[in-house]
Design goal:
This is Bifunctional protein FolD. The chain is α/β, with parallel strands linked by helices and about 300 residues long. The chain has ten helices and eleven strands. It has two domains: about 30-120, 3-Layer(aba) Sandwich (Rossmann fold), CATH 3.40.50.10860; about 140-270, NAD(P)-binding Rossmann-like Domain (Rossmann fold). Helix content is about 40%, strand content about 15%. Bound molecules: 5,10-Methenyltetrahydrofolate.
């Protein structure tokens, strides 16, 4: 059999961002203002700084207003909660993203709970988690929603397919399972205590790997022709003092067996940011009482 198709997340993300930019222009004409996204970063973690910068650039490229807030690594929870209260009350801010993880002195659950659910474009608040689980409109976490878009683009209707999600985080695994269930897949959620994981993966038409361990999913676990979505972003030593990004799937092995597979980098990562732009545009429509008709 020939090698898997490589799912070009970068190209999909660029197409989605172009649609969002069109939607922003139409929104501005109707509402008389542009959508706004506030991104809050606490501390100086270099990787987080890179992500926050690329989110700000994507926001401006889409024609939206970008508000960037930096707090020092030693900032108190009260300071962060006070900033969130200001952003909740600011009518120029449609979406609020607080970059995770947060320093140890700050309780992430309390911070997420402080973000108004209608501005929670990450979809992390209890209200939005509940809405997703009962099928009401709300905000869905960007990474799993981006994965669902890639899957539907590739496979069309997902109904009846066997899907396995490896990883059960609140940010990726659990919402991914909900999205696949809502699309009528038969969903298995696997995790560190799962028995006979390879055997369970071998039954799946769709494999979503979100474990955070480099090359964890092996090629001989994959059913021939399956669609493999690799959510992992792991920085490993590449020898000669350099590092490189790899996913949770042993890519070269899996691509010889799968029907289609996302690469790392250039797969799920770029979709995450494009969906964040899309969620912010949706938030602006809801706040303005305008119908949203895009993706
Ligand atoms: N509240 C919150 N929401 C998030 O959505 C959030 C967060 N916190 N904390 C950190 C993670 C990480 N994240 C990524 C987004 C894009 C890429 C991305 O575009 N990656 C490129 C490679 C980038 C590189 O070279 O480092 C790719 O996969 O091709 C990666 C990771 C969003 N996160």
């Amino acid at each position: 059999m020939s090698d898997a198709a490589i799912i070009d997340g970068k190209a999909h993300a660029a197409a989605l961002r172009a649609q969002v930019a069109d939607g922003v222009a139409a929104f501005a004409a109707a509402a008389g203002r542009v959508p706004g996204l506030a991104v809050v970063l606490v501390g100086e973690d270099p990787a987080s700084q890179v992500y926050v910068r690329s989110k700000g650039q994507a926001t401006e490229a889409a024609g939206m207003a970008s508000f960037s807030h930096r707090l020092p690594a030693e900032a108190s929870e009260a300071e962060l909660l006070a900033l969130i209260a200001l952003l909740n009350a600011d009518s120029a801010v449609d979406g609020i993203l607080v970059q995770l993880p947060l320093p140890h002195q700050i309780d992430e659950d309390r911070v997420i709970a402080a973000i108004h659910p209608d501005k929670d474009v990450d979809g992390f608040s209890i209200a939005n988690v509940g809405r997703l689980s009962v099928g009401q409109p709300g905000f869905v976490p960007c990474t799993p929603l981006g994965c669902a878009m890639l899957l539907e683009d590739r496979l069309g209707d997902l109904a009846g397919l066997d899907a396995i999600v490896i990883g059960r985080s609140n940010i990726v695994g659990k919402p991914m399972a909900q999205l696949l269930l809502a699309r009528n897949c038969t969903v298995t959620i696997a995790h560190s205590r799962t028995r006979d994981l390879a055997e369970k993966v071998r039954r799946a038409d769709i494999v979503v790997a979100a474990v955070g361990r480099p090359h964890f999913v092996r090629g001989d676990w994959i059913k021939p022709g399956a669609t493999v979505i690799d959510v992992g972003i792991n920085r490993i030593e590449a020898g000669d003092g350099k590092t490189r990004l790899v996913g949770d799937v042993a890519f070269d092995e899996a691509r010889a067996v799968a029907g289609a597979i996302t690469p790392v980098p250039g797969g799920v990562g770029p979709m995450t940011i494009a969906v964040l732009m899309r969620n912010t545009l949706v938030a602006a429509h809801r706040t303005a009482g305008l119908p949203y008709t895009g993706i």
